[in-house]
Amino acid sequence: MEPRWTMEMDEQLTTMWIANASNDEISRVVGKPASAVMARAARLSLGQRDKSVIGKATADGKVYWTAAEDRQLLEMRRQGVSSTKIGKAMGRARGGVQSRLLKLDNSKPKGHAEITGLRNCMRCRAKLRSEGRNGPRLCYTCN
User: What are the domain boundaries of the chain?
Assistant: First the structure.
């Protein structure tokens, strides 16, 4: 059975948490699993890690998005550039680009709905708004 958290462990956790050490680094020092480190940090109300390192890699390798990167991302998306090409241009993974776009609530290029416009329902031929090739093909009444 693992020993309970001691005051020394809590102090180490707090100090390393403030220094933006990764959960794995903290877990090695205090001798607890990373999941226990996260749970203890929540219990101690340590809050979120310092984000003054925005734009630089933290100890666990995470790089926060800057406001300038957000503007560049949105501008490239408005131009219709794919997530893969945006990721290559910005040095980010495609999944990271897609996640950021969802967070910014701008997952489609501006004007995308106007490009695809309206479609006809496959059954009753009523007009319905479509979000592209994979959009709905039946209206709500027929669906």
Answer: 1-61, 67-103, 111-143
Paired sense of beta strands 118-120 and 127-129, if any? antiparallel
pTM above 0.70, yes or no: no
- pLDDT at position 28: 93
Compute CA 88 distance to the chain's CA centroid, rounded to the nearest angstrom: 17
**CB hemisphere CA count around 6 (13 angstroms):** 7
Contacts 24+ apart (CB under 8 A), 16-21: 17/41, 17/46, 17/49, 18/46, 18/50, 19/59, 20/49, 20/50, 20/53, 20/58, 20/59, 21/59
- For residue 100, the model assigns a pLDDT of 86
Tens digit of each residue's pLDDT (9 = 90 or more) over 82-91 = 889 998 998 8
Q: Where are the beta strands (DSSP E) in 1-142?
A: 118-120, 127-129
Backbone angles phi and psi of 18, in degrees to 5:
-65, -30
* DSSP labels, 89-117: HHT--HHHHHHHHHHTT--S-TTHHHHH-
| pLDDT bracket for residue 112 (50, 70, 90) | very low
